[in-house]
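Hi C.,

You asked whether I'd gotten around to modeling the 257-residue construct. I have! Everything is below, sequence then structure, no commentary in between.
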Amino acid sequence: MTAQGAAGRCPPTTWLGPLLLMACLLVSSSTAEEVSENCSHMIGTGHLDDLQKLIDSQMETSCQIAFEFVDQEQLNDPVCYLKKAFPLVRDIIEDTMRFKDNTSNANVTVQLQELSLRLKSCFTRDYEEQDKACVRTFYETPLQLLEKIKNVFSETKNLLKKDWNIFTKNCNNIFAKCSSQGRKSQHKEPSDPQLPGFVFCLLVPSIILVLLAVGGLQFYRRRRRSHREPQTVDSPMEQPEGSPLTQDEDGQVELPV
């Protein structure tokens, strides 16, 4: 069998497959090194300074806004905390942080949005079914919200400088613990709606008894008034001259001394 005949019988993929596979591995490895290198210095001090300026420019107010964020009491692992917090921060920047167009604060927000998109490749994604695990609704002021966002960027920057591959950690088991805690709390919640009904059953008879007591008291006062009115009409000052009482008084006057 000639070499040409052998080559003609063998499919091209027999010798092209390994070469393509090696080429893909080289490309992917070079791409991974490039992404990892970018992640290590992607967040600069300028971003943190801009965030601090954004915080300083806010008006102090007691008004609170609602937003979803990581419950640090349930999730105390720093790496998994940031893995869970960063997508939430990205959503807050896009949906909650609204400023007037063409202002310095609006420009900072746009820069943070672009930075969040670039940093997305530095985090491996865990199971989507656990996206709401370890998350709860916060009610805080805008200043408190911005402080949380700055802390997330600052801690992410520090960890990426130490290890660019740190956010590839699998946090599914840790997130599952938060999910189990959430399910336990949900089992306790149905008992709470029964409490208003129990209080309602106690309050209604009490209110009825109070109303009956007040009504009875008013009825008693009216009846007492109705008894007093005839007595005032028959008082001695309004009796006619021929009444026995007048005669007795006259008789007493005519008695000799």
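If it helps when you're writing up: Confidence is low (pLDDT under 50) at residues 1-35, 184-195, 245-257.

Thanks,
B.
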